[in-house]
Amino acid sequence: MTDGKHEVLVIGGGVAGLVLALEVADHRRVTLLRPASDDQGASRWAQGGIAAVLSPQDDIEAHVADTLVAGDGLCDEAAVRFTVEQGPAAIEWLLSLGVPFTPDASPDAGYPYHLTREGGHGARRIIHADDATGRAVVETLRQHVDAHPRITLRGDLTAIGLIGDTQGHCRGARCLDGDGRVHELLAADTVLATGGASGLYRHTTSPQPASGEGMMMAAELGAELMNLEFQQFHPTCLFDPDGPAFLISEAVRGEGGQLLNAAGERFMPGIDPRAELAPRDVVARAIDAEMQRTNTDHVFLDIRHLGETAIRHHFPTIHAHCAGRGWDIARQPIPVVPAAHYSCGGVSTDLDSATTVPRLYAIGEVACTGLHGANRMASNSLLECLVYARSCARQLLEAETGSAAELLTARFGDRMEPPETLTTIREAMRQLMSARVAIVRTDQGLDEAARELGQLHRDLALRVREAAPSVALSNLWHALRLARLTVASARARRESRGLHFNPGCEVHGDADPHPSRIHLTDLDGS
Question: What reactions does this protein catalyze (predicted)?
């Protein structure tokens, strides 16, 4: 079924997709694909806040410098400066929409809203809504989107691929409805806001993480992917094997939380002078090493010394969730473990969020703007969503709609693939990625991952040729190929830098650090 021609098609309804829709809709009609799963995605579960220069005691140059340090020599400085400079205006825009950020009523406050500090930041510059910033921002944006007459929300469709034309331009998306029927939505401009690739791993900080589906949909049209090897592991996910994924915000350490090993001893001060406030790659590796040294499956994050009143005030969501799972964090340290959290790599874009495929844009975690380099600094992610969604909107308002050329679409078989088969392959992929391509990688482990993922890919490819389209099959097909590209990127980087740590390689081996760029055509049997 072919569904007309849409002006702007936005795929994904987290913060980036919602902001883009609102910024464009006054001038161009927007169709926003926002499946119910978006409510369980990364945006809503972002706890800490949004980094921006808001305090009189802070300045742009300091935020730029902190971001460059955290990115470990691989940031695009122009992208960093652009993002940081646009940050204050983006926050003012959110305030104008009514986002309920936490106020600061103290008499010496230099800014009306409370600002906290997180790892890697040299100042308090994280504006937040208690410890549920993502939820507050998403809910506010969603209210405005629902009320806008020129935004059409489609929660009944899931994109499984992009549509290209004979000129190499993107012309919309191929989608499935709940009954498995294919819908082709033709669009003048298409924007990916589909999230990252943390779902490639077994343990993540989001209940329903993306597995890089948008990245691979773009790659199928020839888009360049960049820096896939830099997958960030959040140091402190609640260790709760029987419960859902739950993030313990960086802000907990920002307010004085201390990491303890199984013996109740602090270990971060002996590893880095910034201790618990070191960048995430440093803290995650330290926790991983401590777990291996003590043969334990978690460490502890202790905030008991803050007192129950302060804990309930600053971290009501975390306190309530942990209480519901049996932990009183005012009296017990919190069991935590590193978990896949954020993809620093993705679809390569410019400052206007344009990809290397004409008429295709990418915003949010699916994109690689150059802001994060080899390691994202805390709370720069929602900032990136805001800034690049707004810059993309400006570009879309200047773009000519053009006319569609001859379209190229895929064809499917009609045999249904058993769900248990897909589950088995996905779990095997996640196990491999977690065991071989996680916080610490080795040449041998990467070689094993490449070989075994290649076999899984070949097994699935035989099924894809004959199978009827389904969301589960499409998502796994995208995820498995992205996992292979991630391994290829990690094998190609012959140095340890940022989130990519290989003890067999020299630390910062390249005199001239460079991003890694890869295309689907670089994968044998793609």
Answer: L-aspartate + O2 = iminosuccinate + H2O2
